[in-house]
Design goal:
By secondary structure, this protein is mainly alpha-helical. Helices cover 66% and strands 6% of the residues. The chain folds into two domains: 239 residues, no CATH class; 102 residues, abc type-2 transporter like fold (3-Layer(aba) Sandwich). It has a four-stranded mixed β-sheet with strand order 2-1-3-4, with helices on both faces. The longest helix is centred in the middle third of the chain and has 29 residues. The chain is elongated, with a radius of gyration of 29 Å. The chain starts with a helix and ends in a 6-residue tail after the last helix. 32% of the residues are buried.
Length: 376
C-alpha cells in the first residue's frame, strides 16, 4: 500500500471517529442546530431596537379645536399609545411609576397664544433612564409637532416658514427594521459558538479521557489529527449557518441582496477562523471545563459586545475601537450586514475577508505550533 493510501486511511478513520463522537454527543448537535433556532427566535421576536407603541401622556388643560387637532395627530401616530389627562399632576405620577414614557403638556393658554401671538410653547417630559429611547421619543414628538404645525399653517392660508427642509432617503434598510440589522449579525455569534466553543473542547476531551496518549504512539501525523478533528466541526458549523440563513430569509423576511455564493465563501472563511481559535484554546487547556470557559470569555463575549452586532463601534471610546480590530467577528459581521442589506460591495467584502484570512493563518499556525506529539 502506498504512503498516500495509508495517510488517506488514517485520515478517514480519524474523521469517522470524530463524526461518531459528534453523533453520540447530544450537546454538539444542540449547539449546532438547536441553539441557532433558539437565538434567532429570541433576538428576532424578543429583541427589538425599534421604538414603537411608546406610551405617551397628553395633558390638555383646556380642550378646544386646536388642542383636539394636535392630540389627534398623536393618537393616529403609529409610534405612540397615548393617554389623555386634564392636569399635569396625575401625568407626572404616571411617568414616575413607568406607566408612561413621556408627557406632552398643552397648557390652558395654548390656543390663545397660538391664535394671538403665534407663540405657544409645549411642555415635553421624557423618561431619560434609557438614553437611546429618550432621544427617539423626543425626535418622534418633534416630528408629530412639526407635521401638525405645517398642516395648521396651510389651514390658515399661509406657508410655514422653514429655512431648511429635509428630504431624507434611507438606504439599505428603508423600513428601518431592527430585525434586518440584528439577524444577519446573529449568524456570526452562532458560528462562533459552533466553531470556537465546540472545537475548544475537542483536544481537551482527548486528554481527559486518556485517548491522546494512544494517538501519540501511532504513526498518525499532527496535521492528520488537526484535519481529522476540524473537518467534521467545519461541516457541522456550515450546516448551522445554512439553517440560520434559511430562517433569516423565510421566517424573518430579511432580504439577501448579495450573492449566496459570496455569503457561503465568507462564512467558510470565518468558520476556519473560529475553528482555529477553538483548536488553539484546546491545545492550551487540557480540561473541557477550562477550555469552555476560556472560549466563552475569549470568543463569544467579544463577538457579542465588540463586533458591531448590537453596539455601534464608532460610538465606542477610541481605545476600545482599536481593540475591536483584534476581534474576528467584527469583520464577519461587516460582511454579513453588507451582503444581506447592501449587496456585493467588493471594497467592503474584500477588505474584511483579507483580515479574516490573515487571522485564519495566525490561529491555525499557532494551533499547529502548540500541538506536538509529546506527553509533556
Amino acid at each position: 500500500m502506498s504512503p498516500f493510501a495509508k495517510r488517506f486511511m488514517r485520515l478517514r478513520g480519524l474523521i469517522r471517529k470524530e463524526s461518531l463522537q459528534i453523533l453520540r454527543d447530544p450537546s454538539s448537535i444542540a449547539i449546532a442546530f438547536v441553539m441557532p433556532v433558539v437565538l434567532l427566535l429570541l433576538f428576532g421576536y424578543g429583541v427589538s431596537l425599534d421604538a414603537k407603541d411608546i406610551r405617551l401622556a397628553l395633558v390638555v388643560e383646556q380642550p378646544d379645536a386646536q388642542t383636539s387637532s394636535l392630540t389627534s395627530a398623536f393618537h393616529h401616530s403609529t409610534y405612540f399609545k397615548s393617554i389623555t389627562f386634564h392636569t399635569i399632576q396625575p401625568a407626572e405620577r404616571a411617568l414616575v411609576t413607568h406607566v408612561v414614557d413621556g408627557i406632552v403638556w398643552l397648557r390652558s393658554d395654548f390656543s390663545a397664544r397660538l391664535l394671538n401671538h403665534g407663540d405657544a410653547p409645549i411642555g415635553v417630559f421624557v423618561n431619560g433612564v434609557d438614553a437611546n429611547q429618550a432621544r427617539i421619543t423626543q425626535g418622534y414628538i418633534q416630528g408629530v409637532w412639526q407635521t401638525w404645525l405645517q398642516a395648521y399653517a396651510r389651514q390658515q392660508g399661509h406657508d410655514l416658514a422653514i429655512p431648511v427642509r429635509l428630504e431624507p432617503r434611507i438606504w439599505f434598510n428603508a423600513a428601518v427594521r431592527s430585525t434586518d440589522f440584528l439577524v444577519p449579525g446573529l449568524i456570526a455569534l452562532i458560528m462562533t459558538l459552533t466553531g470556537a466553543m465546540l472545537t475548544s473542547m475537542v483536544v481537551a476531551r482527548e486528554w481527559e479521557r486518556g485517548t491522546m496518549e494512544a494517538l501519540m504512539v501511532t504513526p498518525i501525523r499532527i496535521w492528520e489529527i488537526t484535519v481529522g478533528k476540524l473537518l467534521p466541526y467545519f461541516i457541522l458549523g456550515m450546516g448551522g449557518m445554512l439553517l440560520s440563513v434559511a430562517m433569516a430569509l423565510w421566517l424573518f423576511n430579511v432580504p439577501l441582496r448579495g450573492s449566496f455564493l459570496v455569503l457561503s465563501l465568507a462564512s467558510a472563511l470565518y468558520m476556519m477562523v473560529a475553528l482555529g481559535m477553538g483548536l488553539l484554546i484546546s491545545t492550551v487547556a487540557r480540561s473541557q471545563f477550562v477550555a469552555g470557559q476560556i472560549a466563552l470569555v475569549a470568543t463569544f463575549l467579544p463577538a457579542f459586545i465588540l463586533s458591531g452586532f448590537i453596539f455601534e463601534i464608532s460610538s465606542m471610546p477610541a481605545p476600545v475601537q482599536v481593540m475591536t480590530h483584534l476581534i474576528p467577528a467584527r469583520y464577519f459581521v461587516a460582511i454579513l450586514q453588507t451582503v444581506f442589506m447592501a449587496g456585493d460591495i467588493w471594497p467592503v467584502l474584500l477588505t474584511n475577508a483579507a483580515a479574516l484570512l490573515v487571522m485564519m493563518v495566525i490561529f491555525l499556525g499557532l494551533a499547529r505550533h502548540k500541538t506536538r506529539k509529546r506527553l509533556d
